[in-house]
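Lab meeting, item 3. Inverse folding demo.
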């Protein structure tokens, strides 16, 4: 970990901007087209991930005889701005099954105006507090303590500036070196296909971001995290963000399939529940996505979908 602060990270990302990147803002028509493209991608990725997870549910692993396979249930929600005008919304997709104790794969597209206080924290919003944001957010808590929990999200945000952000990190209650290595390798490959700087930079950012100071430990075994990605080549930035989603879709179901046949003990389950307490602490105390959602009038149920269905504190 480097312990870089937010301003240092933004400067690091500005250094990635291409020398020939245009300084003039894009037209409203072009920005609308970009928003539509990004929103459509997040929906497509959501659908592909749900299909992959339901396939694992059908297989069932060690719990194949424990009950019927789970299926995602959709709940649509709408957001209102402070003045009562429509502010977008989203769709929660939650499954509680025999392999996935609880998994949510949510998409949302929201728009409105930041509060004066919150606008000061968002690039481009202090001058003009209007915003638009679309993304996918996923958290999986597994039935088996041997199968790793996981978080993944990617997003596109537009104020007077616009940028991509996201990433994924692996959260095993009982870490396994081969799972960790394979997870990192998948995202290293995705990063290296776009810029040789990306993986080291975004892995370090992930290690910093998902550190839990009051416990003096990391939340999990890491992954990648990035924000403010605006190199001046929007199509390249979209392509990278898409490859992050594809890398997740390629590696995580393989890790679940690898572990879901393994036996576990009561002690393993206890370890899992106590670990979930750490996970919940981070999300409630430190997570910027939680704060962004609550500060912009998002659906609390969708925002707090990340919390585990059961946890313990020692």
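The presenter then showed the designed sequence:
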């Amino acid at each position: 970990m480097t312990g870089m602060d937010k301003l240092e990270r933004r400067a690091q990302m500005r250094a990635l901007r291409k020398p020939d990147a245009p300084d003039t803002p894009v037209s409203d028509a072009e920005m609308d087209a970009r928003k539509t493209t990004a929103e459509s991608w997040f929906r497509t990725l959501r659908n592909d991930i749900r299909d992959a997870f339901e396939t694992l549910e059908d297989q069932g692993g060690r719990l194949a005889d424990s009950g019927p396979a789970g299926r995602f249930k959709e709940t649509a929600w709408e957001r209102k701005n402070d003045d009562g005008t429509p502010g977008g919304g989203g769709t929660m997709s939650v499954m509680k099954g025999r392999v996935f104790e609880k998994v949510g794969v949510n998409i949302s597209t929201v728009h409105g105006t930041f509060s004066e206080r919150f606008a000061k924290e968002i690039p481009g919003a202090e001058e003009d507090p209007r915003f638009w944001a679309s993304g996918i957010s996923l958290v999986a808590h597994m039935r088996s303590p041997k199968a790793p929990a996981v978080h993944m999200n990617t997003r596109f945000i537009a104020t007077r500036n616009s940028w991509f952000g996201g990433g994924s990190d692996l959260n095993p209650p009982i870490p396994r070196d081969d799972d960790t290595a394979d997870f990192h390798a998948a995202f290293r490959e995705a990063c290296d296909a776009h810029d040789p700087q990306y993986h080291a930079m975004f892995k370090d950012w992930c290690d910093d971001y998902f550190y839990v100071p009051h416990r003096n430990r990391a939340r999990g075994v890491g992954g990648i995290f990035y924000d403010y990605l605006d190199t001046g080549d929007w199509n390249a930035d979209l392509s990278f963000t898409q490859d992050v989603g594809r890398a997740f879709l390629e590696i995580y179901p393989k890790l679940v399939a690898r572990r879901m046949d393994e036996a576990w003990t009561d002690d393993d389950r206890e370890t899992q529940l106590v670990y979930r307490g750490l996970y919940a602490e981070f999300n409630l105390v430190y997570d910027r996505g939680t704060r962004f959602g609550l500060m912009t009038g998002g659906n609390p149920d969708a925002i707090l979908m990340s919390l585990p269905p059961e946890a313990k504190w020692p």
